[in-house]
DNA sequence: CTGTTAGCGCATTCAG
DNA sequence: CTGAATGCGCTAACAG
């Protein structure tokens, strides 16, 4: 049923409207002076011909794409089901859209796709980049060093050679505050379940715990997990089993781990929070599904995305941002049942 | 530190290599005959100059973009945390990448973004489209009617005017099978918790239940939920409370709902599965986190994405696909604890 | 206010 | 096998 309707170009519109195509271009790009009469005729022609400017041609002439790429780098073959990422995407999408940019997201989850995306970036695919590194592999970040387009990262990097600004949560503050919250409730025998070592967030959250514990901190109080998953929480609880009678609180690096700890503690016959309190981090959907419901540290991921987008927009506007600039977003404690 | 290195073009490479830029173009596009000598020099020049072809220019000249857009349409401001979508994305990304296409995903979650994406599509943004409609609003699909690019949908549509092929799971079969599984186990007093009415999957799953029940089916056995969430499952259990003593099985439209049912049943003092069996659908990560672990219908979402991509690739290759073509993917029962 | 012109960077004829 | 010429569809600078 497809009438192979020849591609309608700006010239067709011009002809139909009885003006030169330069005028149509001016009309399309808003600004300049086009007579009311011409405008009307052009508008009519565009409508009748169902004309839409060709994107590639416009990008080529303008040297800009009006798109921003959100790149998510994850471990090989892992899928992205983190609500925080999804929410950040929504926040960024909204902000960028309002500013006239189309956000497109790219997933780098294999060596191939990473290489392909690196190539894409070098070919001027987008006007700016939002970079989410959920993995240890930071290789993609280097790609941007040779590219003259602004980049904003979603977490502070421990690599000093990457100058890109970052927007992240005040992870240390959050974990410090919730640890103090436990201490103030008389929970004086705390242990910590740390996230994977490669993650800056993980490191920072542990740091917060240390700060709150001060003198009392002891390396034997912490279990180092390999990932952020529930099973890691279960393993941590098993690891601490011998001393469980002398422990009255678990501070966990995230909600998943906290749920794992609770599950295992329950199996061992301990009551949460009566015997042992447990706190999470993220306030993920899991937090309210857990039993008991998790007391956790909330972060507003939507505004994470929004703030990243705003920073990027400013940079694309030409505003200078100092190297290694970091913007930290606040967190808050959500009191539920587990602590 | 950015040395505003002038954009290096194909001409720079040609000059550096001592050939005309037509030759470089030929070299880049693989095919034709370029002497070994020239090839070597060009390769060297490209390397030294760190040349990467400009994307917009190439698209313009070639009339193709080498990208495929995966468009996700969701309810206003909802975020996408469905593991099935995430997995399908990964599967499609892999397949498309192997075929030389870059997959980019676009999110349509507001009226604005939907309009913007419609515009994008009409401007020849990509060579093909993968369309995931997670929402009632199917407006975006119409956009493609005027576009001469292949489209593949992720679920069968109930709208006859949309001719695009679709790849979906055999939802009816899956639900029929798991219902029979319960019946065979002697669970003869079943009720059904249906998903939101706007979803084709939801309708099809209900149909499967009806098929398995045959004569025994009774409208009073089904609760119609408004969404796919846990709370809907809880509400369903509350709704059925008066007759709970005479029910020995819940067949649920998805895992979330099943978890909600289990939670509420537990609160009411019923044991799952001893008193009442409960089944889910999707085999989402939630299924193994539930207590008891969910018996559910598994669907391989990664291959969902892969098959969609393969179909799209075939269409982009020029293969004809009949209107309303539907490819149904098999499901399987995963026996765990809840039934 | 509007028509004309010269590129944007590359693919692709067509000669040679 | 390779150089030169055209055009993809549009923007922007320049005259008028």
UniProtKB/TrEMBL annotation, chains A, B:
**Residues in HTH cro/C1-type domain copies:** 5-56
Which Gene3D superfamilies did the record assign?
3.40.50.2300, lambda repressor-like DNA-binding domains
Name by which UniProt lists this protein: LacI family DNA-binding transcriptional regulator
Species source reads Bifidobacterium santillanense
* Domain of life of the organism encoding this protein: Bacteria
Q: Which residues form the HTH lacI-type domain?
A: 8-62
Q: Which UniProt keywords apply?
A: DNA-binding, Transcription, Transcription regulation
Q: Name one GO molecular function term.
A: DNA binding
InterPro entries membership: Cro/C1-type_HTH (IPR001387), HTH_LacI (IPR000843), LacI/GalR-like_sensor (IPR046335), Lambda_DNA-bd_dom_sf (IPR010982), Peripla_BP_I (IPR028082)
